[in-house]
Amino acid sequence: MTSPVVGVSSVPLHKSVIQAVTGESIQSPNRLLVSTCNYADVALGFPELSEVDIYSSPREAENHKDLPSNGPYVVLVPNTAQIVRSLPGHVPPKLLSQDGAMHEKSVSGYLEITDLVRQKLRYLKVPGTGPSPYSMWNTSATGPMISRLSNDGIVSVDSRGRVQIWETSQALLDSSLQGWTKLIGRDDQDLQITYERDGVKECDAPKHGKVDPTGSPHVGGNTWAGGSGGRDTAGLGGVGGPYRLDGGHDVHQVSQQVKDQIRQAAREMGEKAFRERLKQIQMSEFDAEIYDSFYSQVKRHIQSMRVVLDSLQAKGKERQRRGEKEPEPGSPQQKPKRLRLLVDVSGSMYRFNGHDYRLQREMEAVCMVLEAFLGYEEKLKFDVYGHSGEGFNIKLTSAEEPPKNNKQRLQVLQTMHAHSQFCLSGDFTLRATRHAIEEISKEEADEHFVIVLSDANLDRYGISPSSFAEALSSKRT
């Protein structure tokens, strides 16, 4: 081999890698090598045998001039049979022609991944941050520094100190994908892409719009219900529509400045549609299949929660002649505990439900509470209220008369869904939290609890985490 070796792995490659490289099933000592003129080298027989065979993947002659070959710019990952290099601009011309100028501010370099198992060569862009005011280190000349992590991931750092973690192995990518899927809950539906655009025509009068029986996506046109980015019709992302209507398509988001041009006419139609939907909910017979779709998702959690409720003990102080005394462990409650569940029924819950099922999950959580607390009225007195851009004290259930059957519980869930679809945009999270704490604190109880559910879309309305924390810890007597 004519190419100088500048790095050697400390552990051998797995036999499956050797078979992928040589095409044969060979049991032999081996090491992964880094050289200046090759993408990768594998030495069979090294370091134990006297005869060593070298398998190399050579670079093109013009593609290894001044190539970083060691130090903080090359990482060997023998466990995944990869060599990762940090490159400033030594990338194939094809890649540069596709990606544009290499030395633009948005790109500080590339990671070149040589994968021996899959016989693949990949390049990943490293986002740039511009020149550093604190260092003479020019990333356009050297690229970011890289190092191997204990889990075979890669960490890079640029001249501004920006640290980024990279996963290049298939095993790590599969594990992260499974974790992400578990977090999202379901992976049977495409995620939505939101496009922001200005220049929408002036709105006329809000209307539901025509229903396309084919379910095709529509952007603009002032015609179709369930479209996105248009005007006047019910849909998502547009302006002047009477209420939200998710057609399951990518959303072309109109800017807030354009949306603010019209509100009153759309609000009047939204209120009318909301009232009609509530009438329909009250008049319709119980749909067992719909309710079971919520109940089946939380059935096991309901049983677990009822076990916890069975073990509730008194916490409030018992009044004695000469003061107050802590109750004995296991003593029965003299008064029920008081709980208010404050749920988010704002427009963003409906708007992004197709993206991450946030409204669906919240409705399942409410179903769990309504089912689990049934029959524990002597131990726990509870109610459910909502908060949205429309109000901070939206009554969904009563502490005196909680839902007693599946039909009543389904009506609560349907009301949550309907309100989220038709309400005005806005946020009353802080006011709702403070009001709920103040209200239930007035009642005598063994303990008081306020549980707030929110999609945390607070930054849009200038609400800081510290303000929310202050509201959660507030107490009125």
Automatic annotation (TrEMBL):
- Which residue ranges are recorded for the region named Disordered? 204-229, 315-337
> What segments bear the compositional bias annotation Basic and acidic residues?
315-328
Choose one Gene Ontology CC annotation of this protein and give it: cytoplasm
Stated name of the protein? VWA8
